[in-house]
Amino acid sequence: MIMHNVSKLAFIVNFATAREESDKVREATSTVKEIDDATNKHDRFMLTADGQSGFIVRNGGELIALFSTVKGRGHDLVQIAVQCGAEYLDCFDGFLPKLYAKHGFVTVKRELNWTLGGPDVVYMQIPSKLEAAEIGDIA
Questions:
Q1: pLDDT at 131
Q2: Helix (H, G, I), strand (E, B) or coil at 121
Q3: 82, 89, 67: which is closest to 14 by C-alpha?
Q4: To the nearest 10°, the Cα dihedral for 55, 57, 62, 67?
Q5: Taking Cα atoms as reference points, which of 39, 94, 3, 120 lies closest to residue 12?
Q6: For the chain, is the Cβ count within 10 Å smaller at the N or the C terminus?
Q7: Other CB atoms closer than 10 Å to residue 118's CB: what's the count?
C-alpha cells in the first residue's frame, strides 16, 4: 500500500468523510474537532491515494486517527504507521487492541470510558520504546 504525506486540511477532509460514511470509523475514532485541535504542522498526515484510509503520527510518536473505509487495510496501515515513527497510542477496547498487538504494541494502561457503557480506553506502546523504569511499573 502506498501512502502519501498530505496537508492537515486534506487529511481532515478525508477523515471527516470517512466518519460520515462509516459507523465503524465513527465509533473507533476521535471527532474531527478533537483531531484538528490535537495536531499541528509538525505532525505527519498520511493518506492512501484514494483518500479512504489514513493516519497521523504526531511529532513525538503518538499514532492517532488511524482509519479506513476499505476492509482489510488495517494491518498495512499499522505497519506503515510504525515505519513512520508511531511509538504509542490509545484506542477503544474491542477489535483495535488486538490489531495493534499484532504489530508489537502492548497494553500499558486501561481506563474506564468517560461515557457510561462505552468501551474502555486502552493505552498501548511498542516495548522497545518504553523506558526501563516504565517496564518495571508494568510488570
A1: 55
A2: strand
A3: 67
A4: 0
A5: 39
A6: C
A7: 12
- Contacts of residue 133, defined as CB under 8 A and 6 or more positions apart, other chains included, come to none
User: Where do the domains of the chain lie?
Assistant: 1-86, 87-139
Number of H helices and E strands in the chain, helices first, is: 6, 7
* Whole-structure pTM value: 0.87
Q: What band does 137 get if pLDDT is binned at 50, 70 and 90?
A: low
Question: Residue 60: how many CA atoms within 13 Å on its side-chain side?
Answer: 8
Q: Which amino acid is at 77?
A: L
| 92-117 pLDDT tens trace | 998 999 999 999 999 999 999 888 88
Q: Which residues pair with 5 in a beta bridge?
A: 46
- The order of strands in the sheet holding 88-92 is 3-6, 44-48, 53-57, 62-68, 88-92, 121-125, 106-111
Name residue, grid cell 504525506: 5
Query: How far from 99 is each of 40, 66, 74, CA to CA, in Å?
Result: 27, 12, 8
